[in-house]
Design brief:
mainly alpha; about 260 residues; about 0% strand; 8 helices; about 75% helix; Four Helix Bundle (Hemerythrin (Met), subunit A); metal-binding; electron transport
Length: about 260
């Protein structure tokens, strides 16, 4: 099978899994967890898994593979840079709101924050993501950043991007498992025990499988050298050169 056909097949699966993950999250928290609110109750907590997985996994993964779409290679890179940055910023915003939801719930119920391995991995992923976005914006979107600095930053940006995705998937899987253990305690809270695999457990486990498969596909796309966007052509630097020329002209006018 042609390499490009394999790419588009994997990319199509990536999009389908993205939709499936979000639907699964909403169905789980709507049908079994009571829905959503923003009042410090359990319903506010339900926003946490939806926003974190949608932001740190689904949007993040789709934003990461944006440059690998061959149809974009024949066009100037700047619009795709801006779209990549916008998707990542939206992903970061959703993640921050998701963190606010869980902290608000914990504080309202006097539950300690950041005591579990899940929370440690999740907060590390979110913090690294924030640093990654700021560094990426400064390094690749500010036109006065030297090209030598961009070349130095690029491999670190790519490596850290994949690492954040892996951390996000680990946090999501551990969070789903933790939630199911807490929610499905059997007779203590009038639910079937997790060990009997009631429908809610099946939905939660299936969501975990969807997230893992989605992550593996994204990492496969990112790790295939054939699907990397070709090195920037002179046209890709038009924006940088144009802005720098304007800055020089303005500086000359002041002299």
């Amino acid at each position: 099978m042609n390499s490009m056909m394999i790419f588009y097949l994997l990319y199509f699966l990536c999009l389908c899994l993205s939709v499936a993950c979000v639907i699964c999250l909403c169905v789980w928290n709507s049908l079994w967890r009571g829905g959503f609110a923003w009042d410090g109750s359990q319903l506010e907590f339900n926003w946490h898994p939806v926003l974190m997985v949608t932001g740190l996994v689904v949007l993040y993964g789709n934003g990461a593979v944006l440059y690998r779409i061959p149809l974009t290679w024949g066009y100037d890179k700047l619009p795709w840079k801006l779209l990549h940055a916008a998707l990542m910023l939206l992903s970061l915003i959703l993640s921050v709101v998701g963190l606010c939801a869980v902290f608000n719930y914990h504080n309202a119920k006097n539950i300690p924050n950041l005591y579990s391995l899940h929370s440690w991995i999740g907060i590390a992923a979110a913090a690294l993501f924030a640093i990654q976005w700021v560094a990426g914006f400064a390094g690749f979107l500010l036109p006065w950043t030297p090209l030598s600095m961009r070349k130095l930053l690029k491999p670190v940006h790519v490596w850290l991007g994949g690492s954040i995705l892996i951390l996000s998937i680990a946090a999501s899987i551990s969070g789903i498992n933790e939630k199911l253990f807490f929610a499905l305690k059997g007779q203590t809270n009038e639910t079937q025990p997790y060990s009997s695999l009631p429908p809610e457990a099946l939905v939660g486990n299936s969501l975990g499988v969807l997230i893992v498969v989605f992550g593996l596909i994204v990492l496969r796309i990112l790790s295939t050298s054939e699907w990397q966007r070709p090195d920037s052509s002179p046209e890709d630097r038009t924006y940088t050169n144009h802005v720098l020329l304007q800055c020089d002209n303005q500086h000359s006018n002041y002299l």
